[in-house]
Amino acid sequence: MGLRRGDGRLGEPGRGVSFQTAPPLPPAAIRVVFVRDVMTRQVIVIAPDRTIADAAKRMAAKKIGGLVVVEYGRPIGLMTDREILWNVTAKGQNPAKVHVRDVMTAPVATVSPLTTLRAAARVMLEKKTRWLVVTRLDNVEGIITASDLTQGFLEAFARASKRGIVTK
Questions:
Q1: Which fold has domain 26-162?
Q2: For the segment 45-90, what is each residue's pLDDT rounded down to a tens digit?
């Protein structure tokens, strides 16, 4: 009785034999998409002791919605246009007198460049954020947004549809 060598059967032959089956492997044409495939590599950063006015000017100049707050080369927070709107402007505070450290979102949610898009989406949902900083050994390598994730999923789906792997 027991596992017979080499054939994957459990039990004795002829007496309720059952076979172990491994979960099906994904088709070879489905390529796993990683964060590194869709992240923005040129990350604009700001120091925590800069003012909100400085942050807003930097975001406007680069036409972006957020900055990674970095101290001693490590990401410590995020400064987005939402923080500026909700925590400074809406409260009537002077952006030239409020520091980034006072309104940034911290701690920052991070993922590795080798994180799958699916795992990154889970992190976003768990952390209730639309931004993830991509790090390797505490160094900022990129940033990924909910929009980047959506684009990555759509491209992966389009490739799979083209190859007839998924139904429309």
A1: CBS-domain (3.10.580)
A2: 999 999 999 999 999 999 999 999 999 989 999 999 999 999 999 9
Half-sphere exposure of 152 toward its Cβ, with a 13 Å CA cutoff? 23
* Rounded Cα gap, residues 126 and 103, in angstroms: 21
Provide the token pair at 117: 């898009």
DSSP 8-state code for residue 130: S
Q: At what angle do helices 146-162 and 117-127 cross, to 10 degrees?
A: 150
pLDDT > 90: percent of the chain? 67
For residue 130, the model assigns a pLDDT of: 92
In this structure, the strands spanning 131-136 and 45-46 are unpaired
How many CA atoms within 13 Å lie on the side-chain side of 104? 29
Q: Is 57 helix (H, G, I), strand (E, B) or coil?
A: helix
If you write DSSP's letter for every residue of 8-54 in order, what string do you get?
-EES-TTSS-EE--PPPPPPTT-PPPBHHHH-B-S--EE-TTSBHHH
pLDDT score for 81: 94
Domain borders along the chain are 26-162
